Amino acid sequence: MSALTRLTATEAKLFFREPMSVFFTLAFPPLLLVILGAIPAFREPDETLGGARVIDLYAPVVIAMAITMFAVSSLPQGFATYREKGVLRRMRTTPVKPAVMLGAQLLMSTLMSIAVMVVVLAIARLAFNVSLPRQVPAYLLGYLLCALAMFAVGLFVASVASNGKSAGAIGSLLFFPFLFFGGLWAPRETMNDVLRTISDFTPLGAGVQSLSDATAGHWPQPLHVVVMLGWAVVAGGSAARYFRWE
Amino acid sequence: MAIIEVTDLVKRYGDHTAVDGVGFTVEQGEIFGILGPNGAGKTTTVECIEGLRSPDGGTIRVGGLDPRRDEAALRRLLGAQLQESELPDKLEVGEAMELFSSFYGNPTDWRELIEALRLTDKLGTQFRKLSGGQKQRLSIALALVGDPKVAVLDELTTGLDPQTRRDTWELIEGIRARGVTILLVTHFMEEAERLCDRLALIDAGRVVALDTPAGLVARVDDRQRIRFRPSAPIDHAVLTALPEVTAVERAGGQLVVTGRGNVLLAVTTALARHQVVAGDLRVEQTSLDDAFVALTGRPFDA
Question: What are the sequence ranges of the domains in chain B?
Fold first, then answer.
């Protein structure tokens, strides 16, 4: 087995040994969808939403939440802890570069969050009759851009945090505003113009809208693609700038 | 044949010179010790050898390789056990071995290694549940899994209980028997004396002596140390005034008098003159500790 495969498999095993983190990243998003879907009014078409149902709006929000859990919580905390404990330094003395360790964590987070996406889409379709994306490539593009932007933010947190605990704290501070503008408390369709404009410029706002657009059969809007790429470049660049292996 | 050559190594942190012209060579198959007090520059020196730090001056060759320029080749040649480096809490011993094996092109049989390090019954145990000694043994196993020619072991036995420390020493001798050259960093005199073929004594970033442990001790052979419990308080000046005495220290209820020549007779005579009886009197042989004091002019732990 190659080092990257072995590292990714090991990271996945370690991930499953943290029950709290497994719950919040893997189980909580689908659970939230089920809870929302259990509210009868959320399953009724709403005139003010142009005939859509609240549960239709929430499917992409819940998927974006899963990305956020990995990106601002588990990824930076895990990486900062490895740095704090000297795991990365230890890796530097082997033929495998510590960058491979970073790659393994990103790969593991991406695979896990895609798994959550599939589960959420399946539950939404089977239990609540939410339509599946009409434009699958557009949906995947929107998903990957959103994940890229959010993981870049997570790596930036990992770079500036002094240890695992502070990475966790910074992550939770970012978690709520990001998800607010992603529409967790009030979906984008119900936001006023000011909030929605701000939301357009956040990675989750742009991401959720791109997923909704792809579900309806459209490609992501250029503004949202630019916003997500912009976050990826700026956050990723700053992460690279401030990155420390030890 | 020298496998590690260090010449005029200099490393500065800001305006502090941590390593100031260190040089030594390590022969193939040797256990070579770097001994010195905390903060002497030992770890910085080996981190330069391991390629983890860039020297500000001097040259280093490990098996003919420059650690900075030929880092990829060095990683296959050198196994390292770092000071204060941990593994993920919930990683099991067997998983750690499999993982680190996958990092090397021609790893050694890690099961055999684990057997030799007496960790076979811990294969399914998570890192956080290992004892200090087990963590150190795992750390040695990980340093050796790539079948290195050189193993650098930094403060290997710090924090271990005396029995585990002795077990670890035996283990290191076993590793040398496999043909691995060992560079050992330590601040334990006893460890250096017991294990090392040769030693570089480092103080304040410089090599103050380079010799076999016996050779270092032989340099200061006329030095003696007397320990006793005085039956009544005695002014240190009475003893320091004696020409044979070089130092008087209090250690709990005991006095420790260091001196040369016929210091024992001089001290007991002076005590008798002041009607002080020396209880629990002991004369200690010269040790590496004394060699350090003689070579640097100050006690080792200062």
Answer: 2-217, 222-285
* Strand ranges (E), chain B: 2-13, 16-27, 31-35, 57-62, 78-81, 150-154, 181-186, 198-203, 206-211, 223-230, 245-251, 254-260, 278-284
User: A185 φ, ψ to 5°?
Assistant: -90, -40
Q: For residues B301 and B299, give the distance between their C-alpha atoms in angstroms, rounded to a whole number.
A: 6
Residues in chain B whose Cβ is within 8 Å of chain A: 50, 52, 72, 75-76, 78-80, 82, 84-88, 90-91, 95, 98-100, 102-105, 142, 146
CATH 2.40.10.340, applies to B2-217:
no
DSSP per residue, A14-44: HHHT-HHHHIIIIIHHHHHHHHHHHSGGGGS
- Looking at the complex, does the CB of residue A89 fall below 8 Å from at least one CB of chain B? yes
Q: Model confidence over B119-148: pLDDT tens digits?
A: 999 999 999 999 988 998 899 899 999 999
Q: Which CATH class is domain B222-285?
A: alpha beta
For residue A245, the chain B residue with the least C-alpha distance is: B52
Q: What whole-number distance in Å separates Cα of residue B171 and Cα of residue B169?
A: 5
pTM: 0.80
Could you tell me which residues are beta bridge partners of residue B186? B35
Helix, strand, or coil (residue B85): coil
CB pairs under 8 A between A and B: 61
Closest CA to B262 of B219, B289, B224: B224
CA-closest candidate to residue B188, choices B230, B161, B158: B158
Which positions ≥6 away from B247 have C-beta within 8 Å?
B240, B256, B257, B258, B259
> Sheet holding B245-251: strands in order across?
B245-251, B254-260, B223-230, B278-284
The tokens 């009475």 sit on which residue?
Answer: B238
Burial A103-118 (b: 16+ CB within 10 A, else e): ebbbbbbbebbbebbe
Q: How many domains would you assign to chain A?
A: 1
- Give φ, ψ of B263 to 5 degrees: -65, -35
Q: What does each C-alpha distance from B157 to B83, B97, B166, B172, B288 come to in angstroms? A: 10, 21, 9, 11, 18
Q: What is the pLDDT of residue B260?
A: 79
| Domain region containing A7 | 3-242
Q: What is the pLDDT along chain A (246 residues), one digit of tens a residue?
A: 688 999 999 999 999 999 998 999 999 999 999 999 999 988 888 888 888 899 999 999 999 999 999 999 889 998 899 999 989 889 889 998 878 888 898 899 999 999 999 999 999 999 999 999 999 999 999 999 999 999 999 999 998 998 889 999 999 999 999 999 999 998 998 899 999 999 999 999 999 999 999 999 999 999 999 999 999 999 999 988 888 877
Nearest to B86 among A6, A85, A96 (CB): A85
The reply to whether B222-285 shares the fold of B2-217 is no
